Amino acid sequence: MAYTAADVKNLRERTGAGMMDCKKALDEAAGDFEAAVDALRAKGLAAAAKKSSRTAAEGLVGVAVSGTAGIAVEVNSETDFVAKNEQFQDFVRKATQVALDGSITEVEALKAAAYPDGETVGDKLTSNVATIGENQQLRRIKLVKVGAGLVVPYMHNAAAPNLGKIGVLVALESDAAADVLEPLGKQIAMHIAAAFPLALNADDLDADLIARERKIAAEKAAESGKPAEVQAKMVDGAVAKYAKENALLSQLFVMDNKNTVQQVVDAAAKAAGAKIALVDYVRFQLGEGIEKEETDFAAEVAAAAGLK
Questions:
Q1: Which residues, 6 or more positions from 224, have their beta carbon under 8 angstroms from its beta carbon?
Q2: I need a surface site. Which of 33, 45, 106, 257 has the fewest CB within 10 A?
Q3: Paired strand residues for 185
């Protein structure tokens, strides 16, 4: 598998490793980018994998809540210019509300749902593409609910009320009053926006991610030259550390960097004299996981002008 100078540059940005180390890793991985990342991490040459995807997709994340239910919807556009367009913002806001009102959990179901002006959401989106002149896509949706308690929203980098680049919902199951749950949920939501947990608890972490971390840890341990039983403990310890740092309830709370999120919830419950359980959350970051093709603007202009 061949690779380019841009791949070396991207690997440097992703890992923080030196240029020659990146080139060597790509050579040894036959151009496989992710394998090169793992190899650099195993050799201790890479910084910890960045949690926030280096993406360039534009658009907006919308959130809407109603007491014990909340929903997040991501709608993508080609440029940030469209994300600032009032027509586009109005669509994202209304589509998100339609999803909440109908407890809709699938993109195709949302497209088929009735939009306030009588069209379907999908038809309205198609109409917007024609009038705005730029491709737009409903990308993903997630609904959270509690039987009793509160779903608390938070929007980081808000472009407008409940619209922005990082949308968070925190679902708190409790009989405690809203004036107790709302500030707690807001602080936890801010933590989630900053800390990027990968799952609610360790058991919910993706099995493939755990397997990948175990493989990397095993390669590091093997290089230590220590006895097999010591290496096994090193691997188990590294995997446990990864799980603790990436599961929401066991993460250190960013507000004090001393207590875990679970301990913060427990303290709030004790103070309120009521049980409080953090049962679910959503964190939608605009464009997360989408790789947008990089283009050379100067080359595009030259090509359009018929120049080489």
A1: 230, 231, 234
A2: 257
A3: none
Q: Assess whether pLDDT exceeds 70 at residue 53.
A: no
Give the CA count within 13 Å in the CB-facing half-sphere of 91: 31
Gyration radius of the chain's alpha carbons: 23
**pTM, to two decimals:** 0.77
Instruction: Return the SS3 of 265.
Output: helix
In this predicted model, what pLDDT tens digit does every residue of 69-96 receive, in sequence order? 999 999 998 888 888 999 999 999 999 9
The answer to whether 29 and 35 are in contact (CB under 8 A) is: yes
Q: What CA–CA distance (Å, rounded) separates 65 from 150?
A: 9
Q: Give the three-state DSSP class for 205.
A: coil
Return the number of other C-beta atoms located less than 10 Å from residue 250's C-beta. 18
Q: How far apart are CA 234 and CA 225, in angstroms?
A: 12
Q: Do residues 134 and 77 make contact, with C-beta atoms less than 8 angstroms apart?
A: yes
Q: Using an 8 Å Cβ cutoff, are 169 and 68 in contact?
A: no
Q: What is the pLDDT of residues 9-43, one digit of tens each?
A: 888 877 777 778 888 889 999 988 888 888 888 87
